[in-house]
Amino acid sequence: MTFHPGQPLTDASTPELLASLLRDWHARAWVSGTGGGICGPTEDGNLFLAPTGVHKELVRPDDFFVVSPADGRVLRQPSTAGLRPSECNTIFGLIARERDATSIAHSHALATVLAADLVEGADHLEIAGLEMLKGIRGLSNVDVHRVPVIDNTPREPELVAGLARVLDDPRFAGAFAVLVRDHGAYIWGDGVWEAKRHVEVYHFLFEATVARRERHSKEGQR
Amino acid sequence: MTFHPGQPLTDASTPELLASLLRDWHARAWVSGTGGGICGPTEDGNLFLAPTGVHKELVRPDDFFVVSPADGRVLRQPSTAGLRPSECNTIFGLIARERDATSIAHSHALATVLAADLVEGADHLEIAGLEMLKGIRGLSNVDVHRVPVIDNTPREPELVAGLARVLDDPRFAGAFAVLVRDHGAYIWGDGVWEAKRHVEVYHFLFEATVARRERHSKEGQR
Amino acid sequence: MTFHPGQPLTDASTPELLASLLRDWHARAWVSGTGGGICGPTEDGNLFLAPTGVHKELVRPDDFFVVSPADGRVLRQPSTAGLRPSECNTIFGLIARERDATSIAHSHALATVLAADLVEGADHLEIAGLEMLKGIRGLSNVDVHRVPVIDNTPREPELVAGLARVLDDPRFAGAFAVLVRDHGAYIWGDGVWEAKRHVEVYHFLFEATVARRERHSKEGQR
Amino acid sequence: MTFHPGQPLTDASTPELLASLLRDWHARAWVSGTGGGICGPTEDGNLFLAPTGVHKELVRPDDFFVVSPADGRVLRQPSTAGLRPSECNTIFGLIARERDATSIAHSHALATVLAADLVEGADHLEIAGLEMLKGIRGLSNVDVHRVPVIDNTPREPELVAGLARVLDDPRFAGAFAVLVRDHGAYIWGDGVWEAKRHVEVYHFLFEATVARRERHSKEGQR
């Protein structure tokens, strides 16, 4: 199946597209091991959710759960037996409700870890001076974009409190991503296409910010 | 469809080739999000132009506009409904007229941003001491090649003034690329094959110059 | 043939899966030249073993030997003539017996060499502060994980003594990998799917630890 | 067409294999623009030679010339019209005669340029302390391997004198590669499979040596 942004997504094509994004991101090492996750909208306002504990590049359209963004309840089991819904379920639901997001990705890319390392004691990363900021909804290339950074916790559901706090923080109202220290990032959008665009753009922004900080670190020594 | 430089390109095959280059460049992270762009020649001297706001690796041959390089007028809509021509339209037209270019690419690769960072206050990047310079039309490996660097502006059409200035500057008469600070690069050639060769060569030259400068920065500390 | 973790592996599909992993790892430069290796379980408790001296991305399902994990004896020759079993045979057998591993990979990735370089005089690498630790069986993200590092020797079978020592060392009871200085890593799991997950996770952990140490090295200079 | 090291290569399959290696190396950025080159043996002792000025990943089996290693004479034109034999012709012939090589590659990888930069005033790069040295014919992992480095010149045929000198130098009798400063590397073997193995191994050795020198450069500052 090939995709085209001009074609409306359906309950038949959305899981295909979600699975193809996981394959692409696995090839880029943004999800690996069995880490990472993704969800996208059903036609009736719920979420297709990838299973947990599965090599993400091998997830098939039949492996997606349908869950409610209101409470995470499983509304439809996947055709494939023996799967459990992603541990991201609670977090994805929170982001869906708080930000009207219908598609959310969870990345484990090395660049997300290194970007969070940059902030040290602060609670957010500032990204500025990059045209690619225009790839984030609502931003221009002259904006200073603040991405909140929260601490990691042993279990993903426990991240909910930290996430809820920064999603409520007016300083971060323009962010479509949250960095989790030592861990990764949650990145979302309204629909799978916007989520995909934001995922690619934020990874670029994280890589560029890390690379520039490296250079300034060296410059500062001279 | 497979391509071969020995086969003349036609109005049927050029959009296929342009779409395949976008797929290759997306895989290399030279275009991502929905950024980047490309155009190539029609048989009657106009330009096939990719649409804006679309994930570039998913652009299909039917998605290309035909525009006039003289004034950017849309001469033919794509078969696909609902698309808008790339914001690069004005810039591509300017480069086409000033440099007799019939194929132009717009890259958002990280290496273009880091290469522009190197020049700091200057208005161009000097590239020297690399055999790959011979991949640029008219250059030998003993040339010092000057690539102009212009400042970024909030909207791509506003880059036109800066571009017009450096395209007129005799110091840059041998350049087939312009770097835009914090943004990316425009790279062109006479025909799609030369544009493709220049795109690959300039990305190598930018990466090599950045890597060597890193090393000298460290050496200077000892 | 496509694979899915939900389908039980058989003597027909296991060699297909092992061959597909070698292709993926070759594309990532984790095995190259003719280096690297892999084994996985037969249905009757023996090991499918890749041949030596062969470009690993070209290994076909018919090229696998069946060997005994007890003593390395070849129980079944591959259909393809003229092949010899991997030099990893003895080492894989040792790991299989000592750790109840049924699938073991041998990586030659650059990150394994650079990670082993970090430990200098010590006999292990400490990995901490990374969510991806949870991708290793039994670990949480707050654990400090110790991966033993042994010296390289001219012939792989001679590594057996060094490996036997660290596999016996209670400090490393939780490790599913051994780094060999200047050389690479052995990484294993219970079944091919766990071995694959551990391979991807350990490569991430090695890359992240190297990248962070680089940054601290620069910070320390300021 | 799929390849397997166990199948003897023929005049039908050798050009297919050479073309597939160029595609793989283009994806790795070891050849780009229209740079780089390759040759491999015909059944009657001559060389299949890729054309010049062509995007290397698009070279088709029908595009190869047959040339004499004795004097570079073109013995058979490719079926494709309008092609010229690679500028590497003279150099490949020299290496073929001096080293009994029947397959030779010319890489433009960034790692070859950075590796040559390391030697500064010296005439060779020393590579040591790497298991992957065993991937070079005749070497063990405790050898110190010397790869000669020669200066670049404006035209590839003019490199012949420099190459002839180092190919005659007994210090480099064990080398299957020559680095050309600011340019790239020639890497060869007896047959396409050995050349392929040497190409992958030398690129690893160059990358590892560059990465380790970076680290020592930083360490030296503390």
Short description:
Four copies of one chain form a homotetramer. Chain A is α+β, with helices and mostly antiparallel strands and about 220 residues long.
Task: Give an account of the 3D structure.
Four copies of one chain form a homotetramer. Chain A is α+β, with helices and mostly antiparallel strands and 222 residues long. Helix content of chain A is 33%, strand content 18%. In chain A, helix 4 links the parallel strand 7 and strand 8. In chain A, helix 2 packs parallel to helix 4. The longest helix of chain A is centred in the C-terminal third of the chain and has 28 residues. The first copy, chain A, is globular and about 55 Å long. The first copy, chain A, starts with 12 loop residues before the first helix and ends with a helix. In chain A, 54% of the residues are buried. Chains A and B meet through helix 5 of A and helix 3 and helix 5 of B.
Topology:
Four copies of one chain form a homotetramer.
Chain A: H1 13-27, E1 37-41, E2 47-49, E3 65-67, E4 74-76, H2 89-99, E5 103-107, H3 110-119, E6 124-127, E7 145-150, H4 159-168, E8 177-180, E9 184-189, H5 192-219
Parallel strand pairs in A: 7-8
Antiparallel strand pairs in A: 1-2, 1-5, 2-3, 3-4, 5-9, 6-7, 8-9
Helix pairs in contact in A: 2-4, 3-5
What average pLDDT do the residues of chain A reach?
A: 94
- The Rg value of chain A, from CA coordinates, equals 17 Å
Oligomer: homotetramer
Which strand order spans the largest sheet of chain A, edge to edge or round the barrel? 4-3-2-1-5-9-8-7-6
The most extensive contact between chains is: B-D, 31 and 30 residues
Proportion of residues in β-strands of chain A: 15-25%
Number of strands of chain A: 9
Instruction: Give the distance, in angstroms, between the N- and C-terminal Cα atoms of chain A.
Output: 54 Å
Shape of chain A: globular
